[in-house]
Amino acid sequence: MDWLRSLLICVIVSTGVAACSTTSDNAPETATAAAPASAITPFAGYWVGATEAGQEIERSATVLIEEGLDQQFTVTWRNLEAPEGDAALAERDSTLVFLPGDEAGTWQSSNSGEIAEGGVRAWAVVDPADTLVVNIETMTEDGAVERQTYTRQVTGEQMQLDYVRRVNNVETRTLRGTYIRASEG
């Protein structure tokens, strides 16, 4: 994740739109030539945002959505949450690589596994309303199925995120966040 940290530093240090690059060998393989637009193109880029004020949990986050070769794409996100009291800042990083599915506008995570065996199952869809929906399923320690759904809509240089967490199909958390495109290229 050194390449992501380098990108974060570039955005934090710069004023305005950042145009930073990294030479890390850990960066995912992405298309360097102009590729035909895919359903992911409107969502691609580096996004910085936070949950809307007054929600149950207030978080800041970054999201990097990269188009890869052969219609693949990668989503990398970092959440920063300041718990109440004197607790330390909570930080979580996650990355998923998606491979094209059998139908247009669908993808399966390259690292999906059987949730009953401790794995993660993830899939993504771009629906007709130009909305990117990423679903992630896991199994909790007590055997319940947890599904997290991230619904993203882009308008210009702004992205709206609606997050829903369900455990055994019961909604347990919702969050709404607004992101801005922080860099392109």
Short recap of the structure:
By secondary structure, the chain is mostly beta strands. Helix content is 6%, strand content 49%. A hairpin with a 5-residue loop joins strand 7 (131-139) and strand 8.
Observed structural traits:
about 180 residues; mainly beta; Lipocalin; ten-stranded antiparallel barrel; 1 helix; 10 strands; globular; disordered N terminus
Reported CATH architecture: Beta Barrel
Percent of residues in helices comes to under 10%
Number of helices: 1
Beta-strand content estimate: over 45%
| Biggest sheet strand line-up | 1-2-3-4-5-6-7-8-9-10
Which of globular, elongated, flat, extended, rod-shaped describes the shape?
A: globular
- Summarize model confidence as the mean pLDDT: 79
Structural class designation: mainly beta
Would you tell me which CATH topology applies?
Lipocalin
Low-confidence stretches: 1-36
Q: Secondary-structure element order, as H and E?
A: HEEEEEEEEEE
Largest sheet: 10 strands, antiparallel, barrel
CATH homologous superfamily (4th level) name? Calycin beta-barrel core domain
Total beta strands = 10
First-last Cα distance: 19 Å
Rg over CA atoms = 17 Å
Total individual domains: 1
Supply the CATH class. Mainly Beta
